[in-house]
Write a structure and sequence with these properties.
The chain has 512 residues and is α/β, with parallel strands linked by helices. Helices cover 31% and strands 25% of the residues. The strands form six sheets. A six-stranded mixed beta sheet has the order 6-9-10-3-11-12, sandwiched between helices. A six-stranded mixed beta sheet has the order 18-21-22-15-23-24, sandwiched between helices. Strand 23 and strand 24 form a beta hairpin. The N and C termini lie far apart (55 Å). The structure holds adenosine-5'-triphosphate and magnesium ion (MG).
Length: 512
Amino acid sequence: MAYVRMDGITKFYPESNVLANKSVDFEVEQIEIHALVGENGAGKTTLMKILYGLELPDQGKIFIRGREAEIRNPLDANSLGIGMVHQHFRLIPQFTITENTVLGNEPRRKGIFFDRDKAEQSVRGVMEEYGFDLDPGQKVSSLTVGQMQLVEIIKILYRRADILILDEPTSVLTEQQIHKLFDTLEKLTDMGKTIIIITHKLGEVKTVSQRVTVMRKGEVVAVRDTVDVDEKELSRLMVGKSVIFQFKREPMKADKVVLELQNVTVEEKGKESPLLENVNLKVHTGEVLGVAGVGGNGLQEIEDVVTGLCTTYEGRMIHLGEDISHRSSMELRKRGMAYVPADRLCRGSCLESSVLENMIVANHHSFLTGGVLRQGETFEYAKELTERYSISGDLRVPIGTLSGGNIQKVILARELALKSDCIVFSEPTWGLDVASSEFIYEKILEIRKAGVGVLLISSNLDEILGLADTLIVLYRGRIVGQFPNNQDLSKELVGEYMMGLRDDFSQGEQHA
Ligand SMILES: Nc1ncnc2c1ncn2[C@@H]1O[C@H](COP(=O)(O)OP(=O)(O)OP(=O)(O)O)[C@@H](O)[C@H]1O
Ligand SMILES: [Mg+2]
């Protein structure tokens, strides 16, 4: 009898029109470390949120220790002994370890007053029981990320969890901290705990887990004993069969370099290895240069550098022959460099402002007479864009009320109106439905045909292989592979580079 059994779990998100889990069966044995792997968007977090009561499934049943369980919220999960450490920490930095640990579950004197002594005592008790070496009175803000991770684990142990879910616990940790975490996890299973760990990193699966479940596009595609499967096979299971779609593209007419990075390195204080290391790339006119990689391997940093949001890098950035290194995003915008960001809600738009305001924010100066906005003209302009981009939604409502696909189209309309020679797309279809995604793809190919240089940063391998002329793969901040995107390039092969199983540049120089 499986300790945890999820049976036929189906979850649809109407907001994004995504079927995140499709009749998923998932089983975990008692006292094992079970790895749950899959590409970005495969549905891993969704499945675990359902187990932890943060999302309700549309269909399916959950059995814990052989009994059917109704898990409507995290409190239900807690009372069944299930705890979860989230992908992003949820600690309050100004609070101590004790305060964070007991938060929401504080011991009280006379039922009212926070009993600090008792809290500290029980937290100390938990830490001694499981061998954590931390000072409960210490503020979380003074801890390393590795220690914060441990506090998250202490927090669920304090609630007496014996089924621990960890969502990508190692993505922010250094090698050393990862070792320490894995030691802790092994010790916890020795003490009878059952652990589910979500990860992208295949080496970690091999190191720490006994069994592994692989998800792809909302479905479970394999369940294996970890000793029976090597990293290559795991990688293939994760990315799936070879390219299924490739857009018809005219041969590219790359003649001139529009954007170039030369030996760009981004370091972060306290990190052993740089976030980006010696990255060289060139985007030509009429070329889509795809930057592929699993999230957390430097894609975000490339986006930040080329859009001027990160200016503290070594190396150079050249736009149309001119050195534009370390210029701010404002200055890059002034040069007409366009940008469709991954974070379309915070970076791409101002949610409280209207659709119209969001559309003209980049070029509003062209609607000014003596400092006054020509309202009628802006309205006509925005109306024309909504028609051309088939955006449904009133121009006067806050953009935050539109669907994800429509928000993205507004941003796209605004950025393409800049008539730039170079445009950066980051995760352009993340969370969008098929129709909106195809619309975006058509636009990208359209501007490519018009001779614009496109830098396409994406963790979606299908998207990159469908659109890019040239492709580079980032792993741990370094370019590990660079290829023309032709028939010979298979998805399996690129997948192996993305997972860090292949590296063409481990010693030598990179050629841009
Ligand atoms: N709250 C939400 N609303 C709408 N769509 C969502 C929501 N959460 C997830 N999705 C969508 O469901 C799909 C699965 O997402 P999920 O977060 O479960 O993937 P994941 O495997 O954890 O990916 P990652 O490795 O990037 O964390 C994605 O397409 C995502 O866009
Ligand atoms: Mg996730």
